Amino acid sequence: MTTTLAPAPPAAPPSPKAALAPEGGLRRRLVLRLVALVALYLLWELTARVMHNPTFIPSPAAVWDQLITTSTTHDGVRGYSGHLLIEHLGVSLRRIVIGSAIGVAGGLLIGVLLGTVSWLRVVAEPVITFVRALPPLAYFSLFIIWFGIDETPKLWLLSIAALPPVAVATAAAVHNAPTGLVEAARALGASRRQSIRDVVLPNALPEIFTGVRLAVGVAYSSVVAAETINGVPGIGGMIRDAQRYSQTDVVVLGLFAIGLSGLLIDALLLTAENRLIPWRGRA
Amino acid sequence: MSSADAITVDAVTHSYGDVTAVGPIDLTVPQGEFLVLVGASGCGKSTLLRLIAGFEQPTSGTVRTAGTAPVPGRGAGLVFQQPRLFPWKTVGGNIALALKYAGQPVTAERVDDLLARVGLHDVAHRRVWQISGGQQQRVAIARALAVDNPLLLLDEPFAALDALTREKLQDDLRQVSASTGRTSVFVTHSVDEAVFLGSRVVVLTPRPGTIALDLPIDLPRTGIAADELRGLPEFAALRAEVGHAIRDRVTV
């Protein structure tokens, strides 16, 4: 008699991701988030009905109506303050992107200098911490005096606000470059410049990216401050106008527009990070 | 001192603050020799290697490689205890970087060729963390071989590996060394490894490290299998002699 053994199914190598998130973990998280969202919505709806004071707490339906109104032209009025909601948001996003880009570029440059030139670090570190401690609105007045009330002071504000997180993260990562890897490069004949470009900077990338995400966050939270003066079009300007006329539903709509687009941009940055820095947490 | 000497260490001492780690040591390494420095932990053998590599400067005395003061990255390939590969590069990218620094043309053939010399195939596209610790150390050796340096310096390169991988790598290194014939200095605390790999074994005393025993290893370098070599009565005798020299000096 012969017995045939069925071939054993190939054992799947346990991946670290599977260990962290067991089967169905993703769906469970999605359901959990959905339930939380619905609960929040119900709480909002309930509070709005109980309070019965739309200037204090506008109902979800009122905010939804404003979304429609500000996104369309009605009775010859285009959106809100003459611009559609998407245009307000677009102008603000443009400011955030340009401001962050300048701030990140400057922060990188300053960070690398601070991380490599020790006397410069001694001199400049307190200055960076000083600027970091200032609320952006505080130095905005100075920019208004210097640059007027158009686009320039707004971009300056966002750039200066976005710079310190990147500079600090870059300086720390460059300064604390692992001697083992730098030595390995030098043993292969790398010059000082080559070892900075090929070892110190790539090694600092994960920290730099964290700094970039922080910088974009700071630029985001500063854009409303930057748009308090002559901010229309702009989501901050829209909120400020709505506040003046006690249009709470428009204010809440503006908050949603900023918050949701912020979530989206952070998700994009996270995806970029996973693509660009696959070695994060593995070395 | 003759011009054929690859390394000369002349009355060298090295101190970290008040602690003298090494010396005084006099040592001459002729070209083509495979010198193994062996001793207990903390005897300064790694420091001596770093002096020869040019990463440390002697407190007194002089170190010369090929007649000049050693400078890191010039004239000596280095393998450390940890692979020290760059995780943002692929395996092949790590080798390519070494070729670039050496001013040599970077081609896929050259990279594959170097990896093949340390027994690695089809790994050039892999990420560093996707290969085993033993394979990573092979890549580190291939990287050090990428530059046609007259010197190869190895600082306990197999210490962090499991016994099986370690023996395989020892065997492969012995063959690579025999085929390239370049002067090598290998640091270890394993007596067996020292006698197996070296054409000469120098035993260092505990801190401050000085030379306790300087022993030529007259065992066949080629045409002998690892097991066969380890089975030779001469191998056992040399191992006993080196082992004694270390134990005599160590107070436990």
Automatic annotation (TrEMBL), chain A:
Q: Which residues cross the membrane?
A: 30-51, 96-120, 127-149, 155-174, 250-272
What would be one Gene Ontology cellular-component term for the protein? plasma membrane
Which BP terms in the Gene Ontology apply to this protein? Answer: transmembrane transport
- Chief location of this protein? membrane
Q: Membrane topology type, per the record?
A: Multi-pass membrane protein
Q: Which SUPFAM superfamilies match?
A: MetI-like
**Matching PROSITE patterns:** ABC_TM1
Specify the ABC transmembrane type-1 domain's residue ranges: 89-269
For this UniProt record, the keywords arranged alphabetically read as follows:
Cell membrane, Membrane, Transmembrane, Transmembrane helix, Transport
Its annotated compartments are: Cell membrane
Q: Name one Pfam family in it.
A: BPD_transp_1
Which residue stretches does the UniProt record annotate as biased composition, category Pro residues? 7-16
Q: CDD domains this protein is in?
A: TM_PBP2
Family per similarity comment: Belongs to the binding-protein-dependent transport system permease family.
Name of protein: Taurine transport system permease protein
Automatic annotation (TrEMBL), chain B:
**Do you know which Gene3D superfamilies this protein is assigned to?**
P-loop containing nucleotide triphosphate hydrolases
Pfam families assigned: ABC_tran (PF00005)
Quote the InterPro entries the UniProt record gives: AAA+_ATPase, ABC_transporter-like_ATP-bd, ABC_transporter-like_CS, ABC_transporter_ATP-bind, P-loop_NTPase
Looking up SMART domains in the UniProt record yields: AAA
PROSITE patterns in the record: ABC_TRANSPORTER_1, ABC_TRANSPORTER_2
- Chain ranges of the ABC transporter domain: 7-231
Could you tell me which CDD domains the record lists for this protein? ABC_NrtD_SsuB_transporters
* MF annotations from Gene Ontology: ATP binding; ATP hydrolysis activity
Source domain of life is Bacteria
Question: Does the record bear Oxidoreductase in its keywords?
Answer: no
**SUPFAM superfamilies to which the protein is assigned, alphabetical:** P-loop containing nucleoside triphosphate hydrolases (SSF52540)
Sorted alphabetically, the keyword list is: ATP-binding, Nucleotide-binding, Transport
User: What protein name is recorded for this chain?
Assistant: Taurine transport system ATP-binding protein
Query: What is the protein's species of origin?
Result: Actinoplanes philippinensis
